[in-house]
C-alpha cells in the first residue's frame, strides 16, 4: 500500500532536463543519482569574491552544445568536502538556488565543480529529490520540460 506522500511525488527517470531559473539556465541535462548525496553543477570558470563582507562566487557555464554561455553569481552558503564516485575527496563551494523540474520548484543546494569529462553537466543528488520525487531507473526524460534549442545535442 502506498502512503499519501508517495502518491504526491513525481516519477523521474535516470536523466532529466532541469531548469535553474535564478542562474539563467533554462535547460540543462541532469543525471538523477540517488547514490550521490549532493547535487553538482559543472562550471567552466569560477571566481570567489567578497560582497559587503560575505563570500560570493561568480561562475560561467555552457549548459549544452549550441547553448550560449551563462554567467551567474550567488552567495556561497558553505564549503564542504565531497567525495566523487572515484573516491577522490575535494572541498567544494556550495550555493543555493531554485530547481524547476516536472512542474515543481524548490530550493536546493548545489556544489560547483569541473564535470567537463562527464556526460551530464549536472548531477541531481538525493537531497534535491527528497520528498518530491521518486526515481524509476528504467525511464528517462519523463518531466516533459523543454530541452535544448533545436540542433543542440541531446
UniProtKB/TrEMBL annotation:
Pfam families on file? Zn_protease
Q: Which InterPro entries match?
A: Asp_endopeptidase, Peptidase_aspartic_dom_sf
| Gene3D superfamilies attached to this UniProt entry | Acid Proteases
SUPFAM superfamilies xrefs: Acid proteases
Please state the span of the N-terminal signal peptide per the UniProt entry. Answer: none
Which controlled-vocabulary keywords does the entry list?
Hydrolase, Protease
Q: In Gene Ontology terms, what is a biological process of this protein?
A: proteolysis
Q: Which GO terms describe its molecular function?
A: peptidase activity
Boundaries of every Retropepsin-like aspartic endopeptidase domain copy? 11-144
- Protein name according to UniProt: ATP-dependent zinc protease
Amino acid at each position: 500500500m502506498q502512503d499519501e506522500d508517495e502518491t504526491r511525488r513525481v516519477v523521474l527517470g535516470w536523466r532529466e532536463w532541469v531548469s535553474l531559473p535564478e542562474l539563467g539556465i533554462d535547460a540543462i541535462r541532469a543525471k538523477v543519482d540517488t547514490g550521490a548525496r549532493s547535487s553538482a553543477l559543472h562550471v567552466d570558470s569560477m571566481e570567489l569574491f567578497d560582497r559587503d563582507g560575505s563570500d560570493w562566487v561568480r561562475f560561467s557555464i555552457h549548459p549544452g552544445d549550441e547553448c550560449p554561455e551563462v554567467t551567474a553569481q550567488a552567495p556561497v552558503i558553505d564549503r564542504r568536502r565531497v567525495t566523487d564516485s572515484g573516491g577522490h575527496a575535494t572541498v567544494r563551494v556550495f550555493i543555493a538556488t531554485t530547481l524547476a523540474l516536472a512542474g515543481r520548484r524548490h530550493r536546493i543546494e548545489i556544489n560547483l565543480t569541473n564535470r567537463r569529462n562527464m556526460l551530464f553537466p549536472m548531477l541531481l543528488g538525493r537531497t534535491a529529490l527528497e520528498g518530491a520525487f521518486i526515481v524509476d531507473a528504467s525511464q528517462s526524460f519523463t518531466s516533459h520540460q523543454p530541452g535544448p534549442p533545436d540542433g543542440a545535442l541531446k
